[in-house]
Amino acid sequence: MSVEYIQVAEDYSDEPIELPLEPDDNTLLLSTLQGQFPGATGLKYRNPENKAIRGIRLNDLKLHAPGCGWDGLVYYCVFPKDSVSENKRKSDDVMENVSKSKVSKCQTNKCTDLIVLGLAWKTNEQALREYFETFGEVLMVQVKKDAKGQSKGFGFVRFSNYETQLRVLGQRHHIDSRWCEVKVPNSKEGQIQQVPCKVFVGRCTEDLTQEDLKEYFCKFGEVTDVFIPRPFRAFSFVTFLDPEIAQSLCGEDHIIKGVSVHVSNAAPKADGNRNQNYGNSMNSRSQNYAGNSAPYNNFSDSNYRNEFGGRGSGGGNSNGSSSNMSSGGGQNSNFMPNNPNSGGNAWGSGGNNGNNSSSNNNNRGNLDMPNLQALGINSGGNPGNQSGSGGNMNNPLGVGLNALNLPMNPAIVAAALNQWGLLNGMQGQGNNDQGPNNQPWNQQQQRNQNAPDKTNFMRVKRMKYDYDWSD
DNA sequence: GTTGAGCGTT
């Protein structure tokens, strides 16, 4: 008899874990629940009918399915009320091994209402709900209407699960034959975390493939992209669905296929070179001076686009030019690290030809790309956008300051680069640079032996990688 | 009956 599973999460912002049901009576043993969620005393779920929270019947240490069966919903743990925090802490303590502890979420990962733009006039709330329920539990949908009841072509959706939100934000949506955008509403700007999903993986060897990296890092959380620059440069980028997981790995050394790699923050674009080296298709970015936006523009490479495409019922990838996890030459040019201390791009970009194929035939934004503002990596709004109609509203690159609004010190950046041999060795080499091959790693390892907290995270980022990986 | 950048009665 095959074992069935239900999805259980610690709370609404946590990733569900599949727990096995008892084959004989389809119940969930309390002990099974507590094995994963120590301290949990029950389960609850949101009733799809009326959106109310419902409790699960507990009898004889068994949790019984609702009347309609477990039904593919996500169930949430119930903890004794006056000791929730204690139990949560206990739960975290129990998860001693590294990979488990990475999975726990921080409180900043809350769901928020998301705006859905570009809805077909005919799309109603039921259709919207049905579409988004393919991604996860939907708490609310709205289609905004005028006084006559006619749709205004946009609406809102809210999910119960933060990862669902990330997933939905990271891709395009085809609803009732229209490509729609899902973004964090302007009204929620600044209320969501802006932490990069991408990490820099240094000290890679040439035989570490994308698959190796993905296979290794996926144990910490869903990996949405792995990018290995070509020609070989001894580093790569790994992008996680969950920025918290990405951040939690920063500062650590990991051994992959016997290779000791170092994970650190893939720093945002530096301010000093935002007007340089922009390709044809994206040049409107350079005039986008939204002051408070975070310049984590890491998603406009075609790998990423493809990785996100094809999810859900409508997220198909209409761009057939490249496949997931591939890193053909020329694409991903926005990953090419610039040198903020030199006049030009010391690395050479390899061209922008692969970059998002932005013909901008849709001036509502380039829906070939997952939109970054939506992911909370960039804030939207673009109040300072001076670009013309070709502006890419999905990808307001080139925005001014770094995400943490830290002042840049080019000398420090240069020093850091120099440690890698990224400065002296790179300038004047055009496109044939080879990246950090013979770095003096010892000092940095000394400094980074402790996993960084947020403060350290910023320090490491400032010291080491505060230059532009995004363009 | 048409339209297609935007941002929500609370």
From TrEMBL:
GO terms for molecular function: double-stranded DNA binding; RNA binding. GO terms for cellular component: chromatin; mitochondrion; nucleoplasm. Gene3D superfamilies: 3.30.70.330. Transmembrane segments: none annotated. GO terms for biological process: mRNA processing; regulation of gene expression; RNA splicing. Residues 266-393, 426-452 are annotated as: Disordered. Residues 112-189, 197-268 form the RRM domain. Residues 273-305 have a biased composition (Polar residues). The keyword Repressor applies. Its main location: mitochondrion. It holds the Pfam family TDP-43_N. This is TAR DNA-binding protein 43. It comes from Chironomus riparius.
